[in-house]
Amino acid sequence: MVCGRLGIATIEDRIAQTVAKAYIAPTLEQLFHPDSYGYRPHKSALQAIGVTRERCWKYDWVIEFDIHKGVRSNWTGTLLLRAVRKHVKERWAVLYIERWRKCPL
């Protein structure tokens, strides 16, 4: 694994990330709430807007979460890696995820 000076992933990193995602995504996908739309297979921002629009007519309140914004600065690596270790059974994938977390942005 090579991290560029600015944290830009190399082609090899992108390939490894794609392989790791292919292995762990089916297991992790089951853990997400059905209303989670961010970076999910077969879900789009337009679908999220459609559901939101529908619900706006039913309810007079909205809850929005954006954990991606500031996730690296607000979540401790320990908490994130603990969740990864709990749910990802492929030891090699956990090893790579730990290494990718250490790469500078």
Would you mind describing this structure in some detail?
This protein is mainly α and 105 residues long. It has one domain (11-102). Helix content is 55%, strand content 0%. It has 5 helices and no strands. It has helices at 11-29, 45-56, 71-74, 77-87, 91-102. The longest helix has 19 residues, at 11-29. It is elongated, with a radius of gyration of 17 Å. The protein starts with 10 loop residues before the first helix and ends with a helix. The model has no long low-confidence stretch (mean pLDDT 81).
| Share in helix | 55-70%
Would you identify the regions where 5 or more consecutive residues have pLDDT less than 50?
Answer: none
| Major sheet size, sense and barrel closure | none
**What is the terminal separation in angstroms?**
15 Å
Radius of gyration: 17 Å
Q: Tell me the β content.
A: under 5%
Q: Indicate the mean pLDDT.
A: 81
How many independent structural domains? 1
Helix-strand category: mainly alpha
Instruction: Give me the number of helical elements.
Output: 5
| Global shape | elongated
Number of strands: 0
Tell me the series of helices and strands, N- to C-terminal. Answer: HHHHH
